[in-house]
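Sequence in, structure out.
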Amino acid sequence: MLVIECYGKNIYVGTDLVGYIDKFGNMFMNGRRFAKLTDDGKIIIEEVHEAGYIDDIGDIYLNDNNCGHIMESNDLYFSPKLID
């Protein structure tokens, strides 16, 4: 799985579209940049804090907890039960 295939795609929490990833890996929610998705799958907040990552099979981890996955469309899906 190439994480860069998620660039230019959307971010969902459950069925709700909550944000997107631009073509450079910047992650936006409510029109504001909140994180960066690196090409090696790290999710970086405030340019320095590694908040999570995407593993080789497309599972998404935040604070070492599996909370989502990459969908077939290459959009990011977060489980609403695990995000609260």
